[in-house]
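Entry for the shared binder. Reason: the reviewer on the internal report wants the predicted structure included alongside the sequence.
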Amino acid sequence: MNLPNLITLSRIPLTFTVVLLVYGEWIGAATLAFVLFIVCGITDWLDGYLARKHGIVSSFGIFMDALTDKIAVLGVLMALTDMRLVLPGSRIVPVMMFLLILTRDFMITGMRLMAATQGVVVAAERGGKFKTILQIVAISALLLVPAVERDLNHFLQADLAPVLPWLRWFAFGTYAVATFLTVDSGVRYVLKYRHLFTEKRG
């Protein structure tokens, strides 16, 4: 087990910790959740950088990197949706958005497994990488809202209420764009590799 793989695997306990903190009601929990999720995002870059720099890129590392990304994104989004931190005025819209992302990820993962049985490698594309970055930005912004509302107001003793509506709409808007790009990249994958579903194995 090399260092990049250990960094990759560290995202799993970090994700569990962030989810627990999202449900925390004590002062500082929201800020800590935000900081730890930022650390998750940094490890997503760091593990790949170290693996390429030292020439220790492995199939296990590539597979686990993609898997831990999905665990982090879906796990934290599930908690944010459950706590009604995505769009407080609506419960249906955030659930549908989460379901779209969940469906896309399960479909593409299933397609990759099907492709592997046929000796075809479904490589990550630029659109998929970009949507992952935007998802991380959106989740960070969603986590920042309660951090500002509860923690910064408490520690700074300042009225930050005027900032919150703008921050909420930025977070939701970024999440909405990320959801659209997630679905779009999923459709592109399916269209590009649709032959996997129609061709018969020899």
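Summary line for the report: Residues 3-198 form a domain with the Four Helix Bundle (Hemerythrin (Met), subunit A) fold (CATH 1.20.120.1760).
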